[in-house]
Every structure is written in C-alpha cells, then in structure tokens.
Design brief:
131 residues; mainly alpha; 3 helices; 72% helix; 0% strand
C-alpha cells in the first residue's frame, strides 16, 4: 500500500512454506536417536569399567583384612576352592542385600527421572521394564 511492495510476514506467504519435508524430519530424528544411543552406550561402558575397578579394590581389601585367616587355612591344608567358598559365604548376605537395594533404587530413580522429564520438559522417553 502506498507504493510499498514489501511482504509482511504471514501475509502473502503460504503457511506451508516453513514445513520441513517428512524425509528430512525422519533423518534428523534418526541422527538424534543415534547420538543418544551412542551416549548411553558410552555411559554404560564407563559404569561397567568403574564397577570392575570397585570389585577389584573390594576383593583386595577383603583379602588383606583376612590374610591371617587365609594363611592359617592354607597351612592347615585346605584347598583354594574351599577357602574361596568360605570367603564368599561370609560376604554373600551383604552382597545380596546391597544388590537388591541397588536394583530397586535404580529402578525407582529412573522411573522418577523419566516422569520428571516428561512433566517438566518437552522430552518424553518410553520407559518399560520387562523381565
């Protein structure tokens, strides 16, 4: 109007011009899911390595704490298998209880975090646990 031929945004332009093609949207979603999957695999590998190191340190601590008991049993002629079975038997209840507590805590924490993300962000992750 008044000799001004500028288009006003939203007027004179189709609303469909800003829509991304379906193939491009699928490609972007695939790239995002690949990045998320690789980050999750990296985190899982890191946790496994840390767990292995913690188990080695705990085993070393248990052996050093019970060195007299182990050496006494070796002098008396007990086999390595019997000594290992005794050592594991002493700590089995503690290991089982901590495993159950850790499993339940991680399940509840992950369920809470996913519901928190779904309620407070635009990110929704599927959460299903099958036996």
């Amino acid at each position: 109007m008044n000799g001004n031929n500028k288009d006003v945004e939203g007027i004179g332009q189709s609303g469909f011009s800003g829509i991304v093609p379906v193939e491009m949207s699928k490609a972007i979603l695939n790239q995002i899911s690949n990045v998320i999957l690789s980050v999750l695999v990296l985190i899982i590998l890191l946790v496994l390595v840390l767990t292995f190191v913690i188990i080695l340190l705990t085993t070393s601590l248990i052996i050093s704490d019970n060195a007299k008991f182990i050496s006494t049993m070796k002098v008396l002629g007990y086999s390595n298998k019997y000594i290992a079975k005794n050592m594991l038997g002493m700590y089995f209840i503690v290991i089982a209880i901590t495993f159950v507590i850790g499993f339940v805590a991680s399940y509840l924490l992950s369920a809470f975090m996913i519901s928190f993300l779904a309620k407070n962000t635009a990110l929704v992750l599927p959460f299903s646990f099958t036996w």
